[in-house]
Amino acid sequence: MAPPAPVEFKPGVPDYSSVHEPLGELFDPITSPGDWKKYLLSEEKVEQFWKDGFLLNVPLLSPEQCDRILEDYKIFMGEITHPGMDMMYEYHSNQSGDPNNVLIHGLGHWRLTKLFHDLVFLPQAVVPSSQLLVKGKSLPVRFWHDQLFAKPPHHGGCVAWHQDYSYWTRTQPVQHITIHIALEDQTEENGTLYYIPGSHRWTRDGKPLPVTDFNFKDMESIMTVLTEDEKKEFKPIPALLKKGEASFHTGMAVHGSYGNKSASPRRAAVLNYFADGTISNTDEDLLKGIKIPKGEKMDGQFFPLLFDPKWME
């Protein structure tokens, strides 16, 4: 059966967030419970994730799938116009504001194109995520939001050290995961991610570290909030991802990336999920124009259920 037609954001402009199943643009549909199981992580991989707070070099997309997504990416690089840009929750053509430190950053593009919509539902992403939301459990996965991070050649910007959940305390409890997908090879020269092993255990009375740079451009700002012991443990390792590979990290893992000094762009797609049962912690906007009353469950049009381990039974 074909998926339902999306509602229109405005005449002639579909809003794909209204379709809570893959459209069939990026991957073949799952047809049996056994199809889901082949995407489960081994126990060793799960243990490694909880030891370090992240997992590197997880295969997610083929080079051909990456190339197709990069065609849609041109919308957000300013190479193609799209009449639905107002659906984006955020879009920054340069979030740093510094022309020598350019960081293109967007949220909400899953609403605009079929490929970015289907990426949200990718089995290679949602099945492992169910194993990594809460230690020792396998949980249903809901969508939080997507992101794009692009660094142009030679002067691509940095992303300051941070914990994702520091920006997400409007949802609770902490049961979130981020998947960073390399759409081309990521190297130290072109600004790949770096992680601090074990930093997912760095908290302040059970809360995340405070945000030290909302524009991501000051790499060293995090040092002002670290303890002396944390500074001694601050030993970054690069995530050298091949095209189509991903890193998975908890919402509490400290990570960041330096600028792109290479002659090629560095473009990535990011998926952010949380466990089913996560609740709103604010009466204000959760994302642009989207509210769920404080204390109520995060669900509805913009936070669909993507995978439930029961589907493997």
UniProtKB/TrEMBL annotation:
Cofactor(s) for this UniProt protein: Fe cation
Stored InterPro entries: Phytyl_CoA_dOase-like (IPR008775)
One Gene Ontology term of the molecular function aspect: oxidoreductase activity
PANTHER family from the UniProt entry: ECTOINE DIOXYGENASE, PHYTANOYL-COA DIOXYGENASE DOMAIN CONTAINING 1
Protein name per its UniProtKB record: Phytanoyl-CoA dioxygenase
Organism of derivation: Magallana gigas
